[in-house]
């Protein structure tokens, strides 16, 4: 009888889902290139600054990953970030004491928006692209309706600390709070994706019917993905608010940028494929790329053109490898 | 040559000495077939006998490795279905190739729309469709109706008209009644007769003996890829036909059956179960027992399985699990009460193909039980060993495994939740002999541990060899029950409705 | 055409564009409701200015949405149109450079460039098998890079003659709106009457079935993308004629990418493709324009419009999903 020799041995190393390796390679090249291009990157502080800049996008990428891997889209995160920053500024209005309850409120609001997205998608059977597009419009309008056109109020110092300040660590120098938060969320996301619920999300994106017949709550889990995406937008908003201050443009275009990042990480639109680490690596790659282009003195224009070429190339590359295994559509 | 009163000079199509191999597997060997205008030629045989392959060779989907195809006495080779079509040979697929949102006329002319002055000549398209429908004597269908709004039987008519629109003289129909309800079958009969009157040659592939006898003038029987016999229909009785189709010695690799002493209490009992597809289902499965559910395609076997497992629940009758009434309204409810369901469509419904062996094996446990609450601790390695999985490791993607090993993963995912009742639908379809044996041993072993098993299979030797009892379905009902080790003829007689007619 | 309406078979037009009747019904309802609301505040919605306003608003979005309809019908989408509009307005205005003699060459050059972008989109989607979302997003970013690099503000100048295109009208009806409607008619004819149009629906309905029926699906997808980009090019030219010059961000400021998708879906076209049409799309565009105009007349803040738009979009698509399920 044949046995499954390595099957019984649980692997301790984090597995690299396929599609992860290319983005990590590209990222490594970029990070090395940064060291050569800019003197700031000769010491840890430069990279810490990069991480600090990249943290909001990476956190958004975590949330977007959950939605995409389970077979959906979330286009509402950009305007949700803006909405959260504007709401926080209006509620705090410079009052330090308000910070304590505004932060939970902001998180709750993000989760609520995600919940609404998820419920409409799964219960009313509206494609998530449309639902979150509608949500984008609603948020854009509603927040400014409420604030009367331009963001008012101000964030408290305490609120801004997370996005702006850091703490001193020997050898490394000042480590930004946002990097610490990022590390915590990365760990949490990785653990979540290794656990049952996380694996279920991927399985739903791969074969919804199999999960349903296996007794899974498909609707509930897909809704959860949207809630997590909403939460990620709330956290990103807290960081961006602290980092960049209150503005009505803070979340502009973030939805497309984060989808770019996730796809760059090898996560396939339509679901079922890709890892959360790769999604975040995609986000970091994007930010590292921008930093490098900046250092090389390449203007903003070329930046997005390069971004465009890269995303098409990355997906075309992935598609060329996958087409061998293409199956007839409509299995689920 | 004289065929049932029709005098036909030469066949429209003649296949000679056709042989076909897939991956070194000989699926057809030296098969001859000729089709005459105005003749319905039935092609029968068990699953895997090579019927579909032969039909696909005729229609240009597959190219034969040996043998020749002649159309009107001229040798031809078909590199694609298109080339076969232009020679007048069309195929009516079991799965419809129709666009639901487009009209009948649009579907009939799909890809070949007539154009006049740069625009699609809708009038001609509709007239042409109307003409074909008229020609077939189908008056109930307007060429302008959206296909989605038509009942299935009429969609089939559209599919046939689509095939005819290429000026087909030869029509190959693959299990044309599989998707139809009973009263719709009569309509199809009419249609086939009319096609025949209009001098179309029809190759009629079917499992159902009644249809074969009702419609055909000649019958070709295939077994294991070889021609058994070609006979005028009226010279055969259904008993004789069944004997031609089966009658192979039962393979000896089935494990021993359960002894009466091994059987425990009734685990699953269905009384008067019914829904849109099945009626009056009475079913009792005892611990330790493997009950076979036989029947032809479309007889309702899978519908019973799907009902028991909550995918399309019973709307009538009662279900008891371990003696207590159970309301099973969803797959989740079924799974949590210990009913497991190995679906027929392994890839479409059973596995998340791009996920690892581990994720698939734990899928049900995670999906229905959270972290395995209420279940024993699971040793994944032990589980995978118990199904004798051969894989590079638990991290290997399931799509890279062989069919047999994929099926073992499916079984593993259900074993991980310690089911009381296991429903397996075509568990050995498309897997090799070694893996089949492993699946048989595994099923019997599970029965030995007190699991009640309902086994659905189209492969009669397997069903008979494995089952402690056989229930046979016909037309959405259980037509009869047979004790362990019935003859294939007895099963087929019930399954084809032959027994009902004889009675 | 003599149509013998059999019992149980509904007449042609309601059947073909099933939700179309609903869309225009909703439009009429909206116009009535808007008129009443505006009248309560002492104004008139559908006076000359109001009609002009609705139609002018509809023109640019209508042009883009007509193209977007083609792409969505094949089951893809195009996110690059907004940047492409800006690019085309610049190409047009800079080539004209105020010289009436250059109008024709400029128009041809602009449309050729647009077609080139569409060809690129189509090839990447059909041949490289890149998801249309990503492919066109990538194209959008590339165009954006070009625009950011070369332009900070308006550039080029269109001759006065060309401006007539944007401002002339017959009664309350702008000439440009008529041209847009004519294009819609042409697109309808293309989709409903020509073979490539039929194949567009087939590919969107089920690419496999289309391929089995001998349709060259790649070509169909590429055609749809080229047509979509050309339509966006026309929108760019129209906006250039309104503004008198080319403006890099004229497409993105109005959000024509997502807005056009919203209009198409609002018009009853299935996002997954295979069902819908231009007639519904124009209805969707008019609904959005009427909402805008009504809110303007009511003096509601512009932000409220977005909220209503988002809600209308979601509710409409939910209703379509429900209707489809019932059948």
UniProtKB/TrEMBL annotation, chain A:
Membrane topology: Multi-pass membrane protein
Stored InterPro entries: ABC_transp_permease
GO terms under cellular component: plasma membrane
Transmembrane regions: 20-42, 54-73, 98-117, 124-146, 175-193, 224-248, 254-270, 277-298, 304-325
Primary location recorded for the protein, binned into one broad class: membrane
Compartments, record wording: Cell membrane
Translocase is among the record's keywords: no
GO molecular function annotation: transmembrane transporter activity
Keyword field contains Iron: no
Sorted UniProt keywords: Cell inner membrane, Cell membrane, Membrane, Transmembrane, Transmembrane helix, Transport
Name the UniProt record assigns to this protein: Autoinducer 2 import system permease protein LsrD
TrEMBL record, chain B:
Annotated GO CC locations: plasma membrane
Pfam families, A to Z: ABC_tran
GO molecular function: ATP binding; ATP hydrolysis activity
CDD domains membership: ABC_Carb_Monos_I, ABC_Carb_Monos_II
Superkingdom of the organism of origin: Bacteria
Residue ranges occupied by any ABC transporter domain in the UniProt entry: 13-249, 261-500
Localization in the cell: Cell membrane
Transport recorded as keyword: yes
Membrane topology: Peripheral membrane protein
UniProt main location, coarse: membrane
Name of this protein: Ribose transport system ATP-binding protein
Protein species of origin: Prauserella shujinwangii
Automatic annotation (TrEMBL), chain C:
Signal peptide extent: none
TM stretches of this protein: 20-39, 51-73, 103-124, 130-147, 170-191, 220-240, 303-321
Source lineage: Bacteria, Bacillati, Actinomycetota, Actinomycetes, Pseudonocardiales
Transmembrane helix keyword on record: yes
CDD domains given in the database record: TM_PBP1_transp_AraH_like (cd06579)
Superkingdom of origin organism: Bacteria
Main location group: membrane
InterPro entries for the chain: ABC_transp_permease
Protein name: Autoinducer 2 import system permease protein LsrD
Keyword tags: Cell inner membrane, Cell membrane, Membrane, Transmembrane, Transmembrane helix, Transport
Subcellular compartments: Cell membrane
Annotated membrane topology: Multi-pass membrane protein
Organism: Prauserella shujinwangii
GO molecular function, one term: transmembrane transporter activity
GO-annotated cellular components: plasma membrane
């Amino acid at each position: 009888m044949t046995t499954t020799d390595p099957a019984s041995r649980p692997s301790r190393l984090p597995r690299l889902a396929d599609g992860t390796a290319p983005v990590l390679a590209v990222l490594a090249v970029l990070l090395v290139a940064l060291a050569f291009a800019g003197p700031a990157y000769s010491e840890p502080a430069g990279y810490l600054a990069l991480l600090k800049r990249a943290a909001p996008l990476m956190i958004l990428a975590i949330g977007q990953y959950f939605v995409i891997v389970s077979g959906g889209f979330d286009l509402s995160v950009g305007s949700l970030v803006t909405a959260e920053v504007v709401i926080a500024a209006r509620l705090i209005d410079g009052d330090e004491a308000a910070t304590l309850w505004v932060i939970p409120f902001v998180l709750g609001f993000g989760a609520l928006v995600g919940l609404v997205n998820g419920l409409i998608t799964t219960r009313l059977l509206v494609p998530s692209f449309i639902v979150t597009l509608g949500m984008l419009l609603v948020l854009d309008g509603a927040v400014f309706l409420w604030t009367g056109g331009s963001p008012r109020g101000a964030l408290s110092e305490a609120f801004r600390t997370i996005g702006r300040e850091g703490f001193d660590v020997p050898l490394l120098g000042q480590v930004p709070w946002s990097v610490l938060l990022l590390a915590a969320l990365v760990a949490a996301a990785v653990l979540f994706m290794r656990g049952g619920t996380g694996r279920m999300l991927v399985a739903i994106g791969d074969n919804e019917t199999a999960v349903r017949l296996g007794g899974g709550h498909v609707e509930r889990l897909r809704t959860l993905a949207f809630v997590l995406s909403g939460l990620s937008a709330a956290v990103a908003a807290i960081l961006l608010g602290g980092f960049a201050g209150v503005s009505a443009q803070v979340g502009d275009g973030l939805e497309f940028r984060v989808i770019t990042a996730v796809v760059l990480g090898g996560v396939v639109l339509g679901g079922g494929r890709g890892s959360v680490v790769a999604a975040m690596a995609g986000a970091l790659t994007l930010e590292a790329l921008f930093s490098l282009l900046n250092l090389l003195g390449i203007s903003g224009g070329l930046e997005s053109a390069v971004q465009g070429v890269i995303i098409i190339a990355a997906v075309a590359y992935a598609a060329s490898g996958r087409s061998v295994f293409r199956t007839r559509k409509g299995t689920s | 040559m004289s065929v049932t009163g029709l005098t036909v000079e030469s066949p429209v199509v003649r296949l000679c000495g056709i042989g076909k191999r897939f991956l070194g597997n000989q699926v057809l060997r030296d098969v001859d077939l000729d089709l005459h205008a105005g003749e319905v030629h039935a092609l029968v045989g068990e699953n895997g006998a090579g019927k579909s392959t032969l039909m696909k060779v005729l229609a240009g989907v597959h190219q034969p490795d040996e043998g020749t195809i002649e159309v009107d006495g001229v040798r031809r080779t078909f590199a694609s279905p298109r080339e076969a079509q232009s020679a007048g040979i069309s195929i009516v697929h079991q799965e419809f190739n129709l666009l639901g949102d487009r009209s009948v006329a649009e579907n009939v002319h799909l890809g070949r729309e007539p154009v006049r002055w740069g625009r699609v000549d809708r009038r001609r398209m509709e007239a042409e469709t109307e003409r074909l429908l008229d020609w077939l004597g189908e008056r109930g269908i307007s060429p302008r109706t959206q296909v989605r709004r038509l009942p299935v039987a009429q969609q089939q008519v559209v599919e046939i008209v689509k095939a005819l629109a290429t000026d087909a003289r030869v029509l190959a129909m693959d299990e044309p009644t599989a998707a139809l309800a009973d009263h719709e079958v009569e309509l199809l009969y009419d249609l086939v007769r009319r096609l025949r009157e209009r001098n179309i040659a029809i190759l009629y592939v079917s499992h159902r003996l009644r249809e074969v006898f009702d419609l055909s003038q000649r019958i070709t029987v295939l077994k294991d890829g070889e021609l058994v016999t070609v006979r005028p229909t009226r010279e055969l009785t259904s008993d004789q036909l069944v004997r031609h189709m089966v009658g192979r010695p039962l393979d000896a690799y089935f494990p021993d059956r359960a002894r009466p002493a091994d059987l425990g209490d009734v685990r699953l009992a269905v009384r008067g179960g019914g829904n849109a597809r099945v009626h009056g289902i009475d079913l009792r499965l005892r611990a330790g027992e493997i009950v076979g559910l036989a029947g032809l395609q479309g007889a309702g076997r899978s519908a019973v399985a799907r009902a028991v497992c909550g995918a399309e629940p019973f709307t009538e009758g009662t279900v008891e699990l371990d003696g207590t009434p159970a309301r099973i309204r969803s797959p989740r409810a079924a799974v949590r009460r210990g009913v497991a369901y190995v679906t027929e469509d392994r890839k479409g419904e059973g596995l998340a193909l791009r996920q690892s062996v581990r994720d698939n094996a734990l899928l049900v446990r995670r999906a229905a039980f959270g972290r395995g609450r209420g279940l024993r601790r699971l040793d994944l390695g032990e589980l995978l060993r118990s199904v004798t999985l051969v894989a590079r490791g638990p991290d290997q993607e399931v799509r890279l495994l062989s069919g047999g090993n994929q099926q073992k993963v499916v079984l593993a995912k259900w074993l991980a939740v310690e089911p009381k009742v296991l429903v397996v639908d075509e568990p050995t379809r498309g897997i090799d002999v070694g893996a089949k044996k492993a699946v048989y041993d595994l099923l019997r072993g599970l029965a030995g541990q007190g699991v009640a098993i309902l086994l659905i299979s189209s492969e009669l030797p397997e069903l008979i060899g494995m089952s402690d009892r056989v229930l046979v379905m016909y037309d959405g009902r259980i037509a009869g029950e047979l004790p362990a080790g019935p003859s294939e003829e007895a099963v087929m007689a019930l399954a084809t409705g032959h027994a009902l007619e004889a009675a | 055409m003599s149509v013998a309406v059999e019992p149980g078979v509904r007449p042609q037009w309601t059947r073909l564009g099933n939700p179309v009747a609903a869309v225009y019904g909703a439009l009429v309802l909206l116009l009535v409701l808007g008129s009443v609301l505006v009248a309560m505040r002492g104004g008139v919605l559908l006076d000359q200015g109001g009609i002009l306003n609705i139609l002018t608003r509809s023109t640019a979005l209508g042009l883009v949405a007509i193209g977007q309809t083609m792409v969505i019908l094949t089951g893809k989408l195009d996110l690059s149109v907004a940047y492409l509009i800006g690019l085309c307005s610049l190409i047009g205005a800079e080539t004209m450079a105020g010289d009436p003699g250059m109008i024709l060459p400029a128009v041809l050059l602009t449309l050729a460039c647009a077609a080139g972008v569409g060809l690129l989109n189509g090839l990447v989607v059909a041949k490289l098998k890149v998801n249309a979302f990503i492919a066109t997003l990538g194209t959008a970013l590339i165009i954006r890079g070009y625009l950011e690099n070369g332009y900070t503000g308006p550039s080029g100048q269109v001759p006065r003659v060309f401006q007539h295109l944007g401002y002339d009208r017959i009664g309350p009806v702008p000439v440009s709106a008529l041209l847009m409607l004519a294009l819609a008619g042409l697109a309808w004819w293309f989709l409903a009457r020509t073979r490539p149009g039929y194949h567009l629906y087939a590919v969107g309905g089920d690419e496999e079935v289309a391929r089995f029926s001998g349709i060259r699906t790649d070509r169909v997808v590429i055609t749809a993308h080229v047509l979509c980009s050309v339509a966006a090019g026309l929108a760019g030219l129209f906006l250039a004629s309104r503004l008198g010059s080319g403006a890099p961000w004229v497409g993105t400021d109005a959000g024509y990418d997502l807005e056009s998708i919203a209009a198409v879906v609002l018009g009853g076209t299935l996002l997954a493709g295979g069902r819908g049409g231009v007639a519904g799309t124009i209805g969707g565009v008019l609904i959005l324009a009427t909402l805008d105009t009504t809110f303007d007349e009511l003096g509601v803040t512009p932000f409220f419009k977005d909220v209503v738009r988002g809600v209308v979009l979601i509710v409409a698509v939910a209703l379509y999903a429900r209707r489809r399920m019932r059948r």
